[in-house]
Specification:
The chain is mostly beta strands. The chain has helices spanning 3-14, 230-237; strands at residues 32-35, 38-42, 49-56, 62-73, 79-83, 88-91, 94-97, 102-109, 119-128, 149-157, 165-175, 190-199, 205-206, 211-218, 223-228, 241-242, 246-252, 257-267.
Length: 268
């Protein structure tokens, strides 16, 4: 296996869905920052326009382009992607940033002005390869370039639509967590809680914006309450995105509950 092939394989294991998605290695290193990573828009009016900022945070010029992908997510968090560049006007669609430079990218929804429900998309900002400067180090072999792809979540909702989220199932579960990034070693089985949220509304919901309060009976037979803050939830379940008229299941590593009923409430 070549060095480049090995680095590509390791990169796929190291990076997650909302982080840099393609890594090849670099010298000098090129990197970028995209903010915000989550945008909520509406299909009409002033909120049909939004902006994201791309920043070149390292040395060397940064060439980039943008792509839009429709995101459909199932109950277990599996994502299906479909090209959707025709649903937005993006300006500028590509550019080159000097070291430390910034570029604001304008997004305008030009899809259905009256969608039945919220629609979710990725805005992918992809670093393009540029010519590397000749090496000044005698005997240095071929240089390998690093390319970063950053993705932001963009959700477009019908004006006036609201979410309607309720917990349809909350129960204790012993489950197998995934292997840590870059490792093939599975961690020990986890005592936790599986929560299924059902959204009957026409608008999506970002449930990690709320605190979650779990109440039930512990394994010792005594009353048990666990509070999860928005900061903890963002670490455990990301944004907690629940699609309009859809459902999501989340597993959280909250130990101590017995097999009995568990009540879930949300706090603003």
């Amino acid at each position: 296996m070549t060095v480049l092939a090995s680095l590509k394989r390791r990169a796929r294991a190291l990076l997650s869905i909302f982080a840099a998605l393609t890594l090849l290695v670099v010298s000098p290193a090129l990197a970028m920052r995209v903010s915000p990573m989550v945008l909520e828009m509406e299909s009409r009016g002033s909120d049909a326009v939004a902006r994201i900022e791309v920043q070149n945070v390292n040395q060397g010029n940064l060439a980039f382009q943008t792509r839009i992908l429709r995101m459909d997510i199932d109950k277990d968090g599996n994502v299906t992607e479909t090209p959707a560049d025709d649903q937005f006007l993006v300006f500028p669609p590509q550019g080159v940033l000097a070291p430390g430079g910034r570029q604001v990218i304008r997004l305008q929804w030009v899809g259905d002005p009256n969608p039945e429900t919220s629609q979710a998309f990725y805005v992918s900002v992809e670093q393009l390869p540029v010519a590397l400067e000749p090496s000044t180090t005698e005997g240095l072999g071929a240089q390998v370039q690093v390319l970063y792809h950053m993705r932001g979540l963009v959700v477009v909702a019908p004006p006036g639509a609201t979410p309607d989220v309720k917990a349809s199932s909350v129960h204790q579960l012993t489950y197998q967590p995934p292997a840590p990034p870059g490792s093939d070693q599975l961690p020990p089985m986890q005592d936790g809680v599986e929560i299924t949220l059902r959204n009957a509304g026409r608008r999506h919901a970002m449930m990690a914006n709320f605190g979650w309060q779990l109440e039930g009976t512990g394994k010792d037979g005594k009353w048990l309450r666990v509070d999860l803050s928005p900061e903890e939830l963002n670490r455990l379940v990301g944004s907690g995105y629940v699609p309009a008229r859809g459902e999501r299941s989340f597993r959280v590593p909250v130990s101590g509950f017995g097999p009995g009923p568990i009540k879930l409430t949300f706090a603003q």
